[in-house]
Amino acid sequence: MSSSKRILFLNPPGKKIYIRDYYCSKVSKAYYLPQPVDLLMQSAFFNEPDYKILVMDCIAEKISETNAYKKIKCFKPNYIIGQIGAVSLIEDQLFYNIVKKENPNTIIACSGDALLEKYGEKFQKYKWLDAIITNFFKNGFRQLIEGGEKIEGLVYRQEGEFVVKDSKRSKPMDMAVPKQHFFMGNYRMPFANAFPMATVLTNYACPYPCTFCIMSTLPYTTRTAASIITELKELKAKGYKFIYFSDQTFFQSKTITREVLEWMIEDNYGINWMCFSRVDVLNEKELRLMKAAGCTLIMFGVEWAEDDLLTHYKKHYTTQQIEKTFALSKKIGIKRLGTFLIGVPGQSKASILNTIAFAKKIDADYASFNVAVPRSNTSFRTEALKEGLIDDSLEVMDQSGNEVTIGTGLLSRKELQQLKNKAYRSFYFRPKYILKRLLSLRNWTELKIHFKEGWYILKSLLN
Length: 463
Fold this sequence. Notes:
Layout: E1 6-11, E2 18-19, E3 26-27, H1 37-42, E4 52-57, H2 65-75, E5 79-83, H3 89-102, E6 107-111, H4 119-125, E7 131-133, H5 140-145, E8 154-158, E9 161-165, E10 197-200, E11 203-204, E12 221-222, H6 225-237, E13 242-245, H7 254-266, E14 272-277, H8 284-292, E15 295-303, H9 307-312, H10 319-332, E16 335-342, H11 349-361, E17 366-371, H12 379-386, H13 413-428, H14 431-440, H15 444-462
Helix pairs in contact: 2-3, 6-7, 7-8, 8-10, 11-13
Domain Radical SAM core: 192-415
GO cellular component, one term: cytosol
GO molecular function, one term: iron-sulfur cluster binding
């Protein structure tokens, strides 16, 4: 293949700090911005000199629309792998439309939550769109442009029609290492205690059936331990100081994760990290292994304080398990962030207040209160449609709940916004809590991050 093939990995500009990753787009609640993991993982499949590679993260680099158009035209890409989000859909589709007009021979493939259903309608509506990446863990787009036969995780135009190539759950993958050096920019997470920070994905999707989440509809896949360890070695060699494992459920693949953690301990890896997991996945032995390997914080999806809601939305664990795992993590010395979901159909004010109280009861170090969003291709969206809370034309939505999309039937959108703000004030503005957080800070970097994130949260509550 000629080295003249140019491929652009593109996160479009935006009016806000948009996070369009992993089929879950949102506005950053404060100032945090992880690496665009869809683009990062796709970069593993394209090698120089076969491809001349350019990464443009217009959000991280604060590139305006005007400058973005200029940079793209100057680069003259043959192919673009871009992100698109339901949260920024109006801005994004207008942007890509102009990009296509100015670069008519460029093939554009996009990954994003706004494209995961009704493919025919999407291709009809978005004339600029040539392909939809439905699984960014697979190399379907590279297979397409190189004439390969093993195309999967891709929907694409072909002779006026569109072709769907689904992906399936697969054996552990020996994935090539993502090209992290192209993404070594202005990325940050509120719980990172050193920089630069890298985002690492050891597995894809989630095998659990939570009905409000898109992840259960995607084919779960994991990387081999050797593949993960190779990437971790490169990150250390390149000077990264903190790792964000953005797996939906860290330690889901027990044998592989255990091998990686044991290597980190034996090699004296020395880089701290954070992750997402579930309260029913981790036991005390595994939590201690994670702590010894450098884990400083785990984010758990708590969601509600009522077992009937946990059952209805198929979380498959109980409030008792939540309390037990939070207590174990605290005893071992790992910080805990709980994510909570308010505003599901039929939820009352009393239920939401109970959830806020539960966040304090389990002694979460941090809490993230999100308002339910009827995301595309989920049974939760089907429920919201059935209850008459939305109509099928709803496309623009913010997963973080900065702008409330639906009411509960008992509570209006305005009331939900007020309760969300109350949740943050009630949790974070306790004098005892503030003192505890300040006393837990160990270095100047942590202090700066906490003050900056706290300031942005305060600003959002005052707006």
